[in-house]
Amino acid sequence: MQIAHPYLLFLGDVPDALAAKTAIGIVDWRRDWCIGQTRLDGCAADTGLPDRTIQEGAQNGARTMIVGAVNAGGLLPGHWVDSIVEALDAGLDVASGLHVKLASIPAIHEAAERNGRMLFDVRHNTETFATGKGTKRPGKRILAVGTDCSVGKKYTALAMDKAMNERGYTSSFCATGQTGVFISGRGVALDAVIADFISGAAEWLSPAREENQWQVIEGQGSLFHPSFAGVTMGLLHGSQPDAFIVCHEPTRTKMRGVETPLPSIQQVIDMTIACGKLTSPDIRCIGIAVNTAALTEEDARSYLAGLSAEYDLPATDPVRFGMETIVDRVSQEFGAP
């Protein structure tokens, strides 16, 4: 998949920033690839990019419109179709991370055909995956896990990969969701893989490396989420992590989209170790990454200090404070680069 940039990011009329996390993630990590956002009336999300109409985006050099919104089930709302057709008629390719294939919608398919434009469905791939085998492979791996979905697992993995490379480790980021694929240019959207092959896809994504080489793997869902735990379990077994980082959002009491109470960080640590031992007997937690956006800086520092003391682990906000303390823990546990 070679998706041309600059990007124009389509946010539709999503109700909050979390529903636009694909677009926001692209801006945070690939802002230089983006020239603006386009929104429908009632949109409550904002990437901070200039608002442009689709025509203005095309006139300013956009080459692809990214459908930068997500929703439960990965469906494409019917009232978004006209905007996608307009983008195709304006000469843009269109890329989507939703489950529904763009070309399966007749109006979109016809617009792409008549304009000679490309449609990219990054949640779908042409790879054929084997079932997972669980055989120990060389190289070292870190997996981001979560107390919930949408708590910062992708940001944690990207920030950890960056910090490790800056420290002198040889590290690579492995994308397991649509936004990560947009950011890295490679990956597998695991929630679109047939269940029997999720662990095999995770093995394919993080193959054998030299023993001193690291892969930092984007997490998905949560072992405690009744909707998405199946994907999380397959990723845990297939990625075979030597270490994991627990990601958390401190203001939630229920898991996103359901009535299930949020698990504690300790429950996530214990369950991840218990389940992860199947393919990685020495799996261990090396830190806690917290999305403290809802806290003042003073409160965030106090909260993180409390977590660090309680769990005897480094605790940080990857965006606010960086990942250096967790990289320090890697050095202590596994050796310097």
UniProtKB/TrEMBL annotation:
Family annotation (InterPro entries): DgcN-like (IPR011669), DgcN-like_C (IPR035086), DgcN-like_N (IPR035402), P-loop_NTPase (IPR027417)
D-glutamate N-acetyltransferase-like N-terminal domain segment(s): 43-124
Pfam family, one: DUF1611
Domain D-glutamate N-acetyltransferase-like C-terminal: 129-327
Matches recorded under PANTHER family: DUF1611 DOMAIN-CONTAINING PROTEIN, GLL3100 PROTEIN
Protein name as annotated: Putative NAD-dependent epimerase/dehydratase family protein
Organism in which the protein naturally occurs: Roseibium hamelinense
